Amino acid sequence: MEVTGKIKMIDQTKEVGSAGFKKRDVVVTTDEQYPQHILVQFVQDKCDLLNAYQVGEAVKIDINLRGREWTNPQGETVYFNTIQGWRIAKVQAETAATPAQAPPMPAAAAFPPATSLNEEEPDDLPF
User: Fold this and answer.
1) Rounded-to-integer distance, Cα 41 and Cα 48, Å
2) Cα(66)–Cα(80) distance, rounded to whole angstroms?
3) What is d(CA 30, CA 53) in angstroms, rounded to the nearest whole number?
């Protein structure tokens, strides 16, 4: 899967927990009728991939969806989702839109008028 758009925010690398787990967030704004601000998380050695990018650049990020289950101290089960990036690349501004849109339909004047059956051809239909 992938997310394409312009970088809105790049966070600093953060170390979480005592085991040395590293994460870094980036927000990408999609280029569509209703733009979405998508938070993508890079972890461990992938955090350094964001060093070559800055706010405003058009990018394509290859992602994986991650989900996990956690049971809190009260015994309630809670579910979390994460969008995790594993590759990022710059794209040209004109290709930053998500899927390519179909070319516009030509005006009706570009098509020849519909014709009726040619009078010279015999009507050999049996009905």
Assistant:
1) 12
2) 8
3) 17
The Cβ-side half-sphere exposure at 81, using a 13 Å CA radius, reads 6
Q: 85 and 40 in contact (C-beta within 8 Å)?
A: yes
Report the pLDDT averaged over residues 2-30. 95
Structure tokens at 82: 């994460």
Q: Please state the pTM of the whole predicted model.
A: 0.68
SS3 for 39? strand
The pLDDT score that the predictor gives to residue 96 is 46
Q: What is the pLDDT of residues 20-54, one digit of tens each?
A: 899 999 999 999 999 999 999 999 999 999 999 99
Considering only CA atoms, which of 52, 67, 60 is closest in space to residue 95?
60
Q: What b/e readout covers 43-62, taking b as 16+ CB neighbours within 10 angstroms?
A: beebbebbeebeeebbbbbe
